[in-house]
Amino acid sequence: MKCLHPTLLALAALVSGPCWADVYVVVSTQSPVKSLTQRELQDIFLSRSRTFPSGEFATPLDQPRQSPVRQEFYFRLTGMGLPEINSYWARLSFAGQSMPPQPMATQEQLLQTLRRNPLSISYLAHEPRQPGLRVVLQLKDP
Fold first, then answer.
1. Distance of alpha carbon 53 from alpha carbon 55, whole angstroms
2. Which of 67, 99, 121, 138 can pair with 63 through a Cys bridge, CB separation 3.0 to 4.6 Å?
3. Contact predicate 133/114, CB 8 Å
4. What is the Cβ-side half-sphere exposure of residue 131, based on CA atoms within 13 angstroms?
5. DSSP assignment, residue 2?
6. Domain that holds residue 102
């Protein structure tokens, strides 16, 4: 029996890892934001804009650091993997220009913050079932 090269095994694990049909971008139902374009969302999550298109201050929140949906979100949003996103933020932070979205410790903390703060925005691996949240953009599976 032949053994697979470790690199091939790692690649197979990456390819067969979690994947979602869609990623859902959500806000509180109290938020004035009803919908966003992918470009507007990029501007908010990459700190090119600190406001929603209507002018209200935006507070982007990240999933916990080890969350698989975090990688999927940034790839679908920007076409970049987490190492590239982390490098992007390192450059901006070092230059004193901006800080990355605040990662929440748990998904439950993220959901609570989203429901309480009408100016926060984040993303989920599934359509929200919890009351108090509204989908403003759906990043579809390519």
1. 5
2. 67
3. yes
4. 0
5. P
6. 20-140
Spatial distance between the Cα atoms of 99 and 77, rounded to a whole number of angstroms:
18
Q: How far is CA 14 from CA 10, 32, 64, 89, in A?
A: 6, 38, 19, 24
- Domain annotation covers residue 40: yes
The single-letter DSSP state of residue 64 is P
How many Cα atoms within 13 Å fall on the side-chain side of residue 48? 8
Helices (H), the chain: 6-15, 38-45, 68-78, 82-94, 107-116
pTM: 0.83
61 falls within a domain? yes
Residue 86 corresponds to which tokens in the numbers above? 């982390």
| Cα–Cα distance measured from residue 9 to residue 11, given in angstroms and rounded to the nearest whole number | 5
Total number of domains in the chain: 1
> Per residue of the chain (142 residues), what is the pLDDT tens digit?
444 444 433 443 444 445 558 999 999 999 999 999 999 999 999 999 999 999 999 999 999 988 999 999 999 999 999 999 999 999 988 877 788 999 999 999 999 999 999 999 999 999 999 899 999 999 998 7
